Amino acid sequence: MKNFVQRGDVITVPAPSGGVLSGSGVLVGSIFGISTKDAAETTDVELEVTGVYQMKKTSALAIAIGDKVYWDNTNKEVNKTASGNTLIGVAVTAAVNPSPVVNVRLNAQF
Predict the structure, then answer these.
(1) Which segments of the chain have a pLDDT < 50?
(2) Which of 11, 78, 91, 108 has the largest CB neighbor count within 10 A?
């Protein structure tokens, strides 16, 4: 196909204000992904938008397998609060209260 650009599992975007670190969650508009490298503000960075990633979560929160998880862009962590946050996927492991991380399957939907 002449109009094919890319598979879409990795999206290139300008790094947001403050830049990003490799492996960190990044929200640009309504696109959420995991940074594949360190990048300074406004420089191109590739974001993985599919797959399963171990992500920082609100420590004082229990998450069950299958729970929808949301990105809290202020605290740079996942939680189960829809209001003011961005839906990024579902938990594929359980995480007790307290615990620092949970495995998340990104939904790649915008």
Answers:
(1) none
(2) 78
